[in-house]
Write a structure and sequence with these properties.
heterodimer; A: alpha/beta; 2 domains; four-stranded mixed beta sheet; 25% strand; B: fumarase; five-stranded mixed β-barrel; globular
């Protein structure tokens, strides 16, 4: 039995959301630098150069890498043997995550990008609620992953419920088509998270989880899906959209695919688009 | 590709010189606004009321910055995706707005309005908000403070870097760039 202090969770999150928004992580930097070498268009090369300069300034001055510091999205893996200590005036894990988000976005001068109702659109003023996905796991694990998910790239995402007859070809065409339609909008070079299988909501969640894979650009352990990822990256980078859509060889930095069993009648596929400012960080307790 | 150093407000002669793909460095003042502010402005126009800001000869930057740290002019301040302002842009151009700055492609209606009213669409680098903030010297909220990050601001800029995406002749850098590098 492991005991986790809610006050410590809150405090770690407060720091985590800031660091993720200020510091472009090493795995992302490595992919950006590798892809910069492959870019041929002068405008595209300059965009890569500005992405790297921006990362330096953001880190040095504790400024948001992007002004869209995102919805605060969390994936929490919590062991069945974990006991929560309700300290620091916090009554639940949700409250600890919410408070950490509120404090971090305030203290870090991060943008408050949440409206309390999708139609009436009044800003909540503190970037809450947090968007939390829970996973109960055996043992005493406590792992929390944060992603600052901007609106521009999220808006270019898509889901489709295929008939099984569409096959792998149908899925791959859909992914490429989604990247093509997104064009210059989602801040290319993009990262593409693909969820195949499950059902309607599982597919979308798989696509988001695919984005979280570390290090960026690593491949699915299943050689079948690893090949799909390589093929999709190659196809998307033939679209010509290029960095910021100004034309070039590098439209995507990476494609990650995750799969899950599904119904005999279905073959769902979801594509979650992420911008080059890929802000994902985790901690374990 | 030509390079233009321009100051605001902008005249038709300056707009006429800009071609898709050209670099532009802006010095002067930019208006800043995004989704909610555009809706409010266009609602006022439809009701025949006066706008809280003068848009004639101006450029509008689609941005919702992060809050400024103490002693700083502004926080991170890169462009937001422009198509969300497509339904509002043509009427603003018809009233004398000379251009917009954002990222991502524009609708046919906006491109036509820019050709008709002599205006341009410029892009700055999305996701480079920290770098872009270095070109902004001051920032004041001039309307709708209640919108928080979506309030209308007036920012003073020096050599603010952009690229012309759509010029008043129908040129489109996104279309041309993609065509040049597309394989298959």
């Amino acid at each position: 039995m492991k005991t986790i202090s809610l006050a410590k969770v809150r405090d770690q999150i407060k720091d985590l959301v800031q660091e993720a928004n200020f510091v472009l992580q090493d795995d992302v930097l490595a992919v950006v630098k590798e892809m910069e070498k492959k870019e041929e268009s002068p405008a595209g090369k300059e965009v890569f150069c500005q992405i790297l300069q921006n990362a330096e300034i953001a880190k040095g001055e504790k400024l948001g890498l992007c002004q869209d510091t995102g919805l605060a999205v969390y994936f929490v893996e919590i062991g069945e043997d974990v006991k929560l200590k309700k300290d620091g005036g916090l009554k639940s894990l949700r409250e600890a995550i919410t408070e950490g988000t509120r404090l971090g976005y305030g203290e870090g001068y991060l943008r408050k990008s949440v409206v309390e109702d999708p139609v009436r659109r009044k800003n909540t003023g503190d970037n809450t609620p947090a968007y939390i996905h829970w996973e109960l796991v055996p043992g005493d694990t406590f792992k929390l992953t944060f992603v600052a998910k901007g609106g521009g790239a999220e808006n270019m995402s898509a889901i489709r419920m295929f008939a099984p007859a569409a096959g792998l070809e149908g899925i791959e065409d859909f992914v490429v088509e989604t990247a093509d339609k997104g064009g210059s909008n989602p801040c290319p070079p993009i990262i593409v998270g693909v969820g195949v299988g499950g059902n309607f909501e599982y597919a979308a969640l798989l696509a988001k989880k695919a984005l979280l894979r570390k290090p960026l650009g690593s491949h699915n352990p299943d050689p079948f899906y690893s090949d799909v990822e390589k093929r999709l990256l190659e196809r998307i980078n033939k679209l010509g959209i290029g960095p910021q859509g100004m034309g070039g060889r590098i439209t995507a930095l990476a494609v990650h695919v995750e799969s899950f069993p599904c119904h005999i009648a279905s073959m769902p596929a979801a594509v979650n688009i992420q911008c080059h400012s890929h802000r994902v960080m985790s901690f374990e307790m | 590709m030509a390079e233009h150093r321009i100051t605001t407000p902008v005249t038709d002669d300056v707009i006429a010189k800009m071609k898709a793909g050209d670099r532009v460095y802006i010095t002067g003042y930019l208006l800043c606004g995004r989704d909610s502010a555009h809706k409010k402005l266009v609602d006022l126009i439809k009701e025949g009321k006066e706008l809280p800001i003068d848009i004639k000869g101006q450029l509008i930057y689609y941005v919702g910055p992060t809050p400024a740290r103490p002693g700083k002019a502004i926080g991170s301040a890169g462009p937001t995706t422009s198509y969300r302002m497509d339904s509002y842009a043509p009427i603003l151009h018809s009233l004398g707005l000379k251009g917009s700055i954002g990222k991502g492609s524009r609708s046919k209606e906006v491109k036509e309005a820019m050709m008709k009213h002599k205006a341009v669409y410029l892009a700055s680098v999305g996701g480079a908000g920290a770098l872009i903030s270095k070109s902004i010297e001051s920032s004041d909220i001039v309307a709708y403070p209640e919108l928080g990050p979506e309030a209308i601001r007036r920012v003073k800029v020096k050599d603010f870097p952009c690229i012309v995406i759509n010029d008043m002749y129908g040129g489109d850098l996104y279309e041309e760039g993609k065509k040049k590098y597309r394989i298959a």
